[in-house]
Design goal:
Helices cover about 40% and strands about 15% of the residues. It is an alpha/beta fold. It has one domain.
Length: about 70
């Protein structure tokens, strides 16, 4: 799926389980933030590829609803 499709899905409240591979940090940040108002869950696999600061930013975009799988 494209980043735009994932934004729409998260904005509608859909839970998403994806690998971070192929996505920029800003894309993942946007997807996480899009789901905040509906409490959409986001699971990010291969999270070790992100920096600690990237993970903190993404987690802060949708507190309590982002899970990182290393």
């Amino acid at each position: 799926m494209t980043q735009l499709e994932l934004l729409g899905l998260a904005g509608a409240g859909g839970g998403i389980d994806i690998s971070v591979r192929g996505f920029k940090q800003i894309d993942l940040l946007g997807i996480a933030g899009a789901g905040k108002s509906k409490g959409a869950k986001l699971i990010l696999r291969d999270a070790g590829l992100l920096s600690s600061l990237d993970r903190l930013g993404i987690a802060g975009a949708n507190p309590g609803n982002v899970t990182f799988v290393f």
